[in-house]
């Protein structure tokens, strides 16, 4: 593997400069080891979070108060597994065993509701920390789905520009469906906003999930982000993304008079 990129005019540039200037890599064959490690970690985090999110949300199918809500919960549960598989297919190009990967962890496992989960990854399980917490009941699932769904939309919009072109293409394909998952959560919130009892339950859930979802953006100061930006795998810093998500959440909750 060379550390130089050949440009269209047959001149060369260091790979670091090439990526920093917005260059793209298109296959495992031209990915250097350090880049490969960070890329696989990024993909694993997404795959594990989608599998854990799907497994956790499966319970919401039976909590749903009506057929429309059951269909929405079933759709989210199914499509998150599909999204995980699309990224996992890219990981197989780097030697990942797809069948073994699915059995690596208990995706439905959760810690206690009042546990403090370190935002750092838990060993080989690369799911975002928010997916270690359990949901309890329909209103709680709706709130979590909306808040985390909106975070996922903000995160995927940024990751769609990643320097590993095949992954960016998959994220751009996935993004509209993740957007729809968030919208289904918002529709659920609108339905729950109609009664004082539901509104009180929703308020408690918002207070519970907001800080936990906020942690998924990572620390405000991050040496890892700096490395990823240098490689073109990330562009927008954690704090900027978190602030944009928070402003988006506040605006949508204000429309429903839920903040």
Commentary on this structure:
The chain has 259 residues and is mainly alpha-helical. Helices cover 63% and strands 2% of the residues. A two-stranded antiparallel sheet has the order 1-2. Helix 2 (33-63) runs antiparallel to helix 3 (67-92), helix 3 packs antiparallel against helix 6 (165-192) and helix 5 (138-159) packs parallel to helix 7. The radius of gyration is 19 Å and the shape is globular. The N and C termini lie far apart (53 Å).
Low-confidence stretches: 6-11
Q: How many angstroms does the end-to-end distance come to?
A: 53 Å
Number of helices: 9
Helix content: 55-70%
Major beta-sheet overview:
2 strands, antiparallel
Rg, Å, rounded? 19 Å
Class based on secondary structure composition and strand pairing: mainly alpha
**Order of strands across the biggest sheet?**
1-2
Please provide the ordered H/E string of secondary-structure elements: EEHHHHHHHHH
Number of strands: 2
- Summarize model confidence as the mean pLDDT: 91
User: Strand fraction band?
Assistant: under 5%
Oligomeric assembly: single chain
| Overall body shape | globular
In short:
This protein is mainly alpha-helical.
Write the SSE topology.
Layout: E1 4-6, E2 12-14, H1 15-20, H2 33-63, H3 67-92, H4 98-102, H5 138-159, H6 165-192, H7 196-214, H8 223-230, H9 238-255
Helix pairs in contact: 2-3, 3-6, 5-6, 5-7, 5-9
Question: Which characteristics define this entry?
Answer:
259 residues, mainly alpha, two-stranded antiparallel ribbon, 9 helices, 2% strand, globular
